[in-house]
């Protein structure tokens, strides 16, 4: 009986040591991951398959993971599919998204990657538009981008028929409508609007940003709550993000972005 008790005690002691040894704890909390696969989409200059470093935001993401010794593979998909397939666990994460209730319910959010500005653009040749509420904009012809995340107040103003924007598939179409004088203003991300203007060789001085901004949303890396390594992915990324902010890499990436940085005046004099 004594031998049996001693044997049981020895077995329990070994099990306890195995479970509480520092190396055992590390192996369960840090999966052997060398590469993460991130679903993303086209939203220049922030994300884009043909952009340097896959766009400024994806450059930040890759740099943050690299600071933790992890490589990133970006897979470009339509935005809705990128979100849904990540939610279902087909990808490790998806880049990048603004916050809403649907996303909060299904996904874990990283620390904020960036603060964007959603603004209204008008032609610089026209009288500046002054607005404080959507009722101030009801007299103007407006367009907006399908699939873009605007504010709840923006959608409520549409439902109330306070504003009646033409919804178009891309910011390039918004700019073409504006310069053709078919609309008076359009709403989109500030730097995306200037980038798309540059793709049409349009001098950014032909566009005016109307203040105040519609909003200043934060962008995040998301992973599905059902992903087996969800907590580890977010914690690892957040650590890397802090490192690149501390060493100046983060600031160096964003310092390259302003409203004229995409435009080459030698290409066209439009």
UniProtKB/TrEMBL annotation:
The keyword Signal applies. Residues 35-257 form the Solute-binding protein family 3/N-terminal domain. It holds the Pfam family SBP_bac_3. InterPro entries: Solute-binding_3/MltF_N. SMART domains: PBPb (SM00062). Keywords: Signal. The keyword Oxidoreductase does not apply. Residues 1-26 form the signal peptide. Gene3D superfamilies: Periplasmic binding protein-like II (3.40.190.10). It comes from the Bacteria. Belongs to the bacterial solute-binding protein 3 family. This is Substrate-binding periplasmic protein.
